[in-house]
Each structure stands twice: as C-alpha cells, then as structure tokens.
Amino acid sequence: MNASLKFDDNSITVAVVGCGGFIGSHLLQAIFERTRWRVFGVDLESYRIQEHLTNPRFEFLCADLADSAVVERIAQYPVVVNLAAICTPGRYMAEAAEVIRSNYDHPRALADACAKSGSWLIHFSTSEIYGKTAAASGALLEDESEIVLGPVSASRWSYATAKLLTERYMAGLADLNWTVVRPFNFVGPFMDFMPGVDGDGIPRVLANFSTALVRGETLKLVNGGLAKRCFTSVHDAIDFIFSLFAHANAGIGQAFNVGNADNEVSIAELAQLMRSVFAAVKGVPENDVPGVETVSGEAYYGKGYDDSLRRLPSVAKAENLLGFKAKIPLQAALEESLSWFVGHYAL
Ligand code: UDP
C-alpha cells in the first residue's frame, strides 16, 4: 500500500461494502465531492443513495457478503471499506445467530479474500467491543483496555462478541493489510429508521427519541438513562476516514477509536437536550414537548438485555498517528440530526 491515496488520482477505485447504509451514504457523497475516485458499492438497499446511482463514477451491486462470488469480486479492488453489519441493538437478543453471521462469518470471508488479493481492508467494528464498562470506568484505550463481556445468557453481547472475534481474526491473518475502526455512537441524517415507517423493531437511541418526539410520545429512559455515551457527528466520522486514506502507512495494522470525548452525556441528559432542540426546530414551547419515563431494560428490549454504563474513547491514537480529532459539538450534531429527521419524515 502506498503511503497515501491521492485524492486527485482518477485511476483509484474503492470498494464500499454497505454503501447504502447510514455511514456508507455519507462516505459515498464525500468521495464523489472530495476526490476523483470511482466507487464499487455493495448493499442490499439503495434508498439513501438514489442520487448516485446514475453517477458514471459509481457501480452499484445489490448483494451481500453471504455470496462468496461477491466477496471475491470486492477483494479485487485495492481499498475495501466494510461498513456492512446488523447493528440494531433490538436484534442482538432476538436474532443472535444472524447477528453473528453478519458480524463474524461475513467479514471473516472478506478478510480472507483481501489477505489473498493484497487489498487494504478498512473494517468498521464497534465501541461495543469494550463490553460491559462500569459507570466509573475511564477513557477506553485501543490497545490496553481490558474487555469484559456479559454472560452468554445476556444475549445483548452477541454483537460485541462477533465484532471482537472478527478484530482478532483480522489481526491474526499474517498477510492482511487491515485497519479497524471503532465508532462511538455516530449520529446524523439517515441514521437508522423510524419504526413502522422504514424499519421495524427498536433502533438506536437517537432515532428512538426522534421518533417519540415527532409522535408526541414519552421518551423512554432505559434503567433511568444513567448510561453515558459520546455522541459523534457522522461528518467527523467521514473526516476520520479521509485522514486514514491520507495516512495509509500509519493506519495499517491499527485499531482506532473514532469518537468525540467532549460530547459525553448521560442518556437522561440527551433526552433533555433533544427535547429542547425539538422545541426550537418546531417553534413550540418546551413544555409542549413530550416528557420522559423510566423503563427497565428487559421490559423494553426483552430478556437478555444488558448495558455498558460509560463509553468514553481515548482519542489520542487517531490524533497522534493520523492528525485526526472530532470537532462537531453535541448541540450542533443534535440540531442537524433532528432537523433532518423532522424534514425527512415530513412531520
Ligand atoms: N436507550 C434508552 N432509550 C431508548 C434507546 C436506548 O434509554 O429508547 C439507552 C440504552 O439502554 C443505552 C443507550 O441508550 O444505555 C444507548 O443505546 P443505543 O441503542 O443507542 O446504542 P449503544 O450505545 O448501547 O450501542
């Protein structure tokens, strides 16, 4: 792999697996705007990327990694970004086997193919691999933090277990040029879905709270909303990927946290912030916006729910090796996300 990928080099084609998803759709947009590259994109859905389907620099294949011929084809490209995953918490309990196939078997096949072809595989893992962190845990370090996952009976950990095994497998493949990305609660336009409209089940907290706000329903705080997260704008995530593209040598063989440590809030605080942003977006008094209520994790998600109480990234590694630091404050990220949600679902 060259020391960097030149953004004005029109001979480069990047394969983006999961190009139709939340992060993938933003990545496509950025590649077309900021570079002269071509993209070979793979996904089962394309509604978020309609505007690109006729772009001559884009080839779209409606498929997934369950098909070994598709895997071989993807690995023919020198750079492969893998964003494809089942990553809806509600499904970690009810469909654990399918979650493991999506987050271990499929990326493992892709890693094997890239090891053979010599492609650079940029694999999106998750901050959930840090497991069942306690409320008092400190910043999570990519190469040092201990990892404790809950018991098998707490099936929430099916996703983290599969993602972690994929990371270990990739790191163990001698011939693979790999980079692992661990997202910390990315938010922005096109995140997840609105239950009953363009998806079913329970999406992640931002889409859940947005849905509750527009439907005039109370925001559900799981176990009191005491857990803390660092919500990170998807635009920062895209800037991270470009920093990585520009510093390939420094990024190969490394796992990176990608998150905004300055944006840490409890879920209860997030609910209040979203209530006031929503009131401003709709131009109504905050008192008219739905309130909050506490629900138990098991009542809300079903048996086997468990949680991480704090997920704070150390961001030093990305800063030192790639010169990347997330910049977008929580308030701005929430304003953009909620305004988009209200407009997109025309509510
Ligand atoms: N959560 C909540 N209400 C919701 C959805 C989620 O209180 O409607 C909580 C959830 O229990 C967790 C946090 O919000 O503590 C973040 O959950 P999410 O599903 O967004 O993703 P995670 O960061 O856990 O992977």
Structure description:
- The protein is α/β, with parallel strands linked by helices and 347 residues long.
- The chain has a domain of 148 residues: Rossmann fold (3-Layer(aba) Sandwich), CATH 3.40.50.
- 39% of the residues lie in helices and 16% in strands.
- The protein has twelve helices and 14 strands.
- Strands 3-2-1-4-5-6-11 form a seven-stranded parallel beta sheet, sandwiched between helices. A three-stranded mixed beta sheet has the order 12-9-14.
- Strand 5, helix 5 and strand 6 form a beta-alpha-beta unit.
- Helix 6 crosses helix 12 and helix 9 packs across helix 12.
- It is globular, with a radius of gyration of 20 Å.
- The termini are far apart.
- The structure holds uridine-5'-diphosphate (UDP).
Question: Which SSEs are present, and which pair or pack?
Answer:
Layout: E1 13-17, H1 22-34, E2 38-43, E3 58-62, H2 68-74, E4 79-82, H3 89-94, H4 96-117, E5 120-124, H5 158-172, E6 177-183, E7 186-187, H6 205-215, E8 219-222, E9 228-230, E10 232-233, H7 234-246, H8 248-251, E11 254-258, E12 264-266, H9 267-282, E13 292-295, H10 297-301, E14 310-311, H11 316-322, H12 330-344
Parallel strand pairs: 1-2, 1-4, 2-3, 4-5, 5-6, 6-11, 7-10, 8-13, 9-14
Antiparallel strand pairs: 9-12
The structure holds uridine-5'-diphosphate (UDP).
Uridine-5'-diphosphate (UDP) binds at residues 89, 128, 185, 204-205, 208, 220-222, 225, 227, 229, 267, 307.
Q: Looking at this structure, what is the CATH superfamily of the domain at 85-187 and 231-261 and 314-327?
A: NAD(P)-binding Rossmann-like Domain
* CATH class category name of the domain at 85-187 and 231-261 and 314-327: Alpha Beta
Specify the overall morphology.
globular
Helix and strand string, N-terminal first?
EHEEHEHHEHEEHEEEHHEEHEHEHH
- Residue runs with pLDDT of under 50 for 5 or more positions: none
Total DSSP helices = 12
Q: Quick check: average pLDDT?
A: 96
Ligand catalogue? uridine-5'-diphosphate
Could you describe the largest sheet, including whether it forms a barrel? 7 strands, parallel
Named at the architecture level, the CATH assignment of the domain at 85-187 and 231-261 and 314-327 is 3-Layer(aba) Sandwich
CATH fold name of the domain at 85-187 and 231-261 and 314-327:
Rossmann fold
Number of strands: 14
Overall structural class, as computed from helix and strand content, comes to alpha/beta
Q: Into which percent range does the helicity of residues fall?
A: 25-40%
Spatial strand arrangement across the major sheet: 3-2-1-4-5-6-11
What is the rounded Rg?
20 Å
Strand fraction equals 15-25%
